[in-house]
Amino acid sequence: MPYNILIVDDSETVRAVIARTLEMAGVAVSNLHQASNGEEALEVMKNNWVDLVFSDINMPGMGGVEMIEHMRASDLLSTVPVVVVSTEGSKTRIDDLLSKGVRAYIRKPFTPEKVKAVVDELLGGGSNEA
User: Fold this and answer.
1) What are the residue ranges of helices labelled H in the chain?
2) Which residues contact residue 117 at a Cβ distance below 8 angstroms, ignoring those fewer than 6 apart?
3) What is the pLDDT of residues 65-98, one digit of tens each?
4) What is the pLDDT of residues 32-69, one digit of tens each?
5) Cα–Cα distance between 71 and 127 in angstroms, integer?
6) b/e code 31-58 from CB counts within 10 Å (16+ = b)
7) N or C: the chain end with fewer CB closer than 10 Å?
8) b/e map of 66-80 (b: 16 or more CB within 10 Å)?
9) Cα 48 from Cα 25, distance rounded (Å)
């Protein structure tokens, strides 16, 4: 089953790398949405169904943590899984993000295998493989 995925990062290059990594991992994507910060992401989710969000934390305007807090307070968005993709990797930071409802954490740089494993864990598959 293909998924609707939203990638949130202020770097267009990073968004492109994540999109390419999803493709390389064989993740079936129906609609791939992109946003450059949390505010844009919430607007995308207001107008489109999203199955999974990959998000950076540090972005200009509304950052990833604030976006996640808005999502968790929303009846419509509270169950959408969020995967944080960041260079920050301290246990304290990861534990804090998990306590805010983040479902998984991927540290940059990442591999297609890691991305696929997270998608499979959170959505139960979605691969193009037979």
Assistant:
1) 12-24, 38-47, 64-72, 91-99, 112-123
2) none
3) 999 999 999 999 999 999 999 888 789 989 999 9
4) 999 999 999 999 999 999 999 999 999 999 999 999 99
5) 26
6) ebbbbbbbbbbbebbeeeebbbbbbbbe
7) C
8) bbbebbeeeeebeeb
9) 24
